[in-house]
Amino acid sequence: MALAVASYWEPLDNHKVKCLLCPRECVIAENQSGFCLVRKNVGGRLVSTIYGEIASAGYDPVEKKPLYHFYPGQVIFSIGTNGCNLDCRSCQNWQISRQETHREVFPPRMAVDYASRYDSIGIAYTYNDPIVWFEYVKDTASMIKEEGLVNVMVTNGNVNLEPLRELLPLIDAFNVDLKGMTKEYYAKFSSMPNPNVWEVCERIKKAGKHLELTKLIVPLYDEFTPEYFEKFARWIAENLGKETPLHLSRFFPAYKLMNTFPTPVDVLNMAYNVCKEYLYYVYVGNVIEPEKESTFCPKCGALLVERIGYEVSVKFSDGVCPKCGRPVDFVT
Ligand SMILES: [Zn+2]
């Protein structure tokens, strides 16, 4: 099950191959794997070593992805496997994303079967980065669509444009982890010298897909100044739209940053206040702040969705604000 010929690569001399799936474009010698660990050169051909195998699965609230404006309060079957095209210093899931673990055989048909149990709305490809699982995600997502269910990708958003074009018709919603606004940030924090996440976000939006962004605020990597967060929020508002939800997440020591301190709560609140100047929907994560986790109408301020942790209460119906009638920015 596990070995499947990969999409997006080209043969080079001496049985080497060049992977063309993500902008890293690894050149891989025979019997070696790319940076992602799970795309391997076998006999001069690139194969995916994780096709139809999962390392993690569960039924999660869609808010946990996080997606706050997509089927609020619903459950989604979530699966992940091994591998990632980035190596972020603070990865929460490095045990599965940056090393190989035990995997269960889980062909697409089985995933589709699980996806409709327990009132799940479909499948979220998450935990590790689904980009490196391209072949399986594509096959499974096609079958999910045929069943009338939804597909969600939780991703770092660094993927070449041709594979992205293939995925876009199949994926209903994306949460993209926008780590920084510069190549230097990605090189330093994620060991990724040539990110293209900004263009990918624009393409997702242009394709009419639901997009939410997550920004983890990391001490020693992010600047704790209003100007710094203004740059984030301004770019999102100007290029993706003011209605794009932004999740600002509090950092806790993890992986290669075990000796770093958590994001100070006043920094998180400062970033929230700055971003709210530019964007309709800003949320904070990994901290208890009910007022900053709920959704309010940008026109009249009415409460639209109340969230306390994963307890979700939807206050609107018929797709409009109950007080002023403004169409709500939700997929339901
Ligand atoms: Zn309103």
UniProtKB/TrEMBL annotation:
Cited InterPro entries: Aldolase_TIM (IPR013785), AmmeMemoSam_rS (IPR027596), Organic_radical-activating (IPR034457), Pyrv-formate_lyase-activ_prd (IPR016431), rSAM (IPR007197), rSAM_sf (IPR058240)
What is the UniProt remark on how the cofactor binds and its stoichiometry?
A: Binds 1 [4Fe-4S] cluster. The cluster is coordinated with 3 cysteines and an exchangeable S-adenosyl-L-methionine.
- Pfam families per the record? Radical_SAM
| Positions of the Radical SAM core domain | 69-286
Cofactor(s) needed by this chain: [4Fe-4S] cluster
Task: Give the domain of life.
Answer: Bacteria
- Entry keywords, A to Z: 4Fe-4S, Iron, Iron-sulfur, Metal-binding, S-adenosyl-L-methionine
Sorted alphabetically, which SUPFAM superfamilies does this protein's record hold? Radical SAM enzymes
| Record carries keyword Iron-sulfur | yes
Q: Name one GO molecular function term.
A: catalytic activity
Q: What positions does the entry give for [4Fe-4S] cluster binding?
A: 84, 88, 91
Q: What is this protein called?
A: AmmeMemoRadiSam system radical SAM enzyme
**The organism's taxonomic lineage, starting at the top:** Bacteria, Pseudomonadati, Aquificota, Aquificia, Desulfurobacteriales
